[in-house]
Structure formats: structure tokens, C-alpha cells
Amino acid sequence: MKIAIVSDHAAVDLKAQLREWMMEQGHEVADLGPDTTDSVDYPLFGYRLASVIADGTAERGVALCGSGIGISIAVNRNPACRSALVSEPLSAELARSHNDANVIAMGARLTGLEMAKACLSAFLETEFLGDRHQRRVDQLSNPDVRDNHD
């Protein structure tokens, strides 16, 4: 799978560890930065990730910052992205199966390496269920849709 990964300065170390781990799992991983712990603005890296998800360059994305909150908000500004902030594997699994999340966000200050790997495994291994969930996912990218379903 083609996966893009970004972080802010607080999550550079976790990003490097997860990048290497995903590559060991056989994934093609594009690290979109940053490369150092020098202070950066997380929205810019969130937008960078959202761009490659939206244009199809990457199938899935991993967004990391100190809490995971800010970078997830930035990614979700792009209507083609469905970024889910998770801290344990069940949330990652449900984000994929019910919400067709194409980006997982985690906080480096809140999630240890082994838990991050467990979340990432669930995210990468779980398929979207479609069916009744598809209508709802379509509505996520189009807020003007009105529910005509009883």
C-alpha cells in the first residue's frame, strides 16, 4: 500500500519509527516531513498530507503531532480526507470499517510506540464495510446533502 506520513516537530521521532515499521511490513511510505525537531506549523504539514490523499498519490495517510488534534483538523479541511484521531486499535478499526477513514491521526505525547503500531495495524488491515455506511461517508464530503431516509 502507498502510505504518506507527516508530523510536526513534537512527533518527528514517532514518525521515523512508524515509517521504518511500515516499510518493514512491505508498504511504500512517503515521508512528507519535517526532518528535524525544529518548530514547524502543523497545519502546513496536515495540508501537505491531505493534498497527496486527495490527488491519489497515497492511498492512506498518517498524521502525527503532539496531541494528534491539530493536525487532524488540518487534514480534515480537505473534503477528500477523512482523518480519524485514535488512541487505541478499536477506534482505528471502526474509523476504517464504518467511516472509510483514509488518514489516521495520533498524538506522540499521548500514544506510545507499541500502541501506535497497534492502531496503525488495525487501520491498515481493516476494510470499509460500505453498504449502509456508504451514504453517510458520502455525506461527510458533501454537507449540502439532506437526509431523505426515514
Task: Write a structural description.
The protein has six helices and five strands; from the N terminus they run βαβαβαβαβαα. It has helices spanning 12-24, 42-54, 69-75, 89-99, 113-125, 132-141; strands at 2-7, 28-31, 60-65, 83-85, 103-107. β4 (83-85), α4 (89-99) and β5 form a beta-alpha-beta unit. It has a five-stranded parallel beta sheet with strand order 2-1-3-5-4, sandwiched between helices. With 150 residues, the chain is α/β, with parallel strands linked by helices. 45% of the residues lie in helices and 16% in strands. It starts with a strand and ends in a 9-residue tail after the last helix.
**Average pLDDT over all residues:** 93
Report how far the terminal alpha carbons are from each other. Answer: 38 Å
How many discrete domains?
A: 1
Instruction: Determine the fraction of residues in helical runs and give it as a percent range.
Output: 40-55%
What is the name of the CATH architecture?
3-Layer(aba) Sandwich
Query: What is the strand tally?
Result: 5
> Order of strands across the widest beta sheet?
2-1-3-5-4
Strand content: 15-25%
Structural class: alpha/beta
